[in-house]
Amino acid sequence: MERIKIEALPREKRSKGSNRQLRSKGMIPAVVYGRGVAPRTIILDGMTLKKALAAGSNVLLDLQVKGDNGTSMETVMVKELQRHPLQRDFFLHVDLIRISLKEKLEIKVPLNFTGEPRGVKEGGVFQAQVREISVRCLPADIPDYIDVPIEDLGIGDVLTIADLKLPKGMEMLEDENENIASVLAPHEEKAEEAEEAVEEPEEETQEEQ
């Protein structure tokens, strides 16, 4: 996993008004916490954070906080990112968690389905039940995603967690029997859509009552 250097400044005021002023200037209020150290409030540059997150949600950040006492550095990851409800590329607040490069983390990694299933070429419909999985590994071993080849899936075939091949040093935290993808016969897909169409009016009627 790529490591990116990012700079920050200490943040003293924590009122809603001061936070709005920061955001209007392109800055983002943030909190750093974890590893038994007291939480620290900081300010990040919005554009710099966006560029860093372009490398992936699990990117490792070498955070440099500049202040009157010099510059401190620690490695962190984004724990929670609050976005504007209408402008999704506008960040409101970010929580950063301190990590150790020598200790394993529990994280979620996206799945990248590769190829076209054989069953789709035969008229079937591909469905992905899971888009990301929980794993445990060292920070340096965190992948951007895990490739899942699906070319050999025929109509009626199902992939489960047990079928995934994890990179070396990575531990699976999901139930190995859980389905992650399948290829349905065309009539099965239509039947599911019909069932959903029947259920929706019933829910609306209950709400009206």
- Give the helices and strands as they follow along the chain: EHEEHEEEEHEEEEEEH
Rg measurement, Å? 22 Å
Given the helix and strand composition, which structural class is it? Answer: alpha+beta
Distance between the termini: 53 Å
Spatial arrangement of strands, main beta sheet = 1-3-2-6-5-4
- Can you tell me the overall shape? elongated
Mean pLDDT: 85
What is shown here, in short?
The protein has 209 residues and is of the alpha+beta class. The chain has helices at 16-24, 46-53, 118-121, 186-208; strands spanning 3-10, 27-34, 37-45, 60-67, 70-83, 91-98, 105-114, 125-128, 132-137, 146-149, 158-160, 171-172, 179-184. The protein is built from four helices and 13 strands.
What is the secondary structure topology, with strand pairs?
Elements: E1 3-10, H1 16-24, E2 27-34, E3 37-45, H2 46-53, E4 60-67, E5 70-83, E6 91-98, E7 105-114, H3 118-121, E8 125-128, E9 132-137, E10 146-149, E11 158-160, E12 171-172, E13 179-184, H4 186-208
Parallel strand pairs: 1-4, 2-6, 7-10
Antiparallel strand pairs: 1-3, 2-3, 4-5, 5-6, 7-9, 8-13, 9-12, 11-13
Notes on the structure:
There is one protein chain. 21% of the residues lie in helices and 43% in strands. By secondary structure, the chain is an alpha+beta fold. The protein folds into 2 domains: 3-98, Ribosomal Protein L25, Chain P; 105-200, Ribosomal protein L25, C-terminal domain (RNA Polymerase Alpha Subunit, Chain A, domain 2). The strands form 3 sheets. A 6-stranded mixed beta barrel has the order 1-3-2-6-5-4. The radius of gyration is 22 Å and the shape is elongated. The N and C termini lie far apart (53 Å). Residues 203-209 have low confidence and may be disordered.
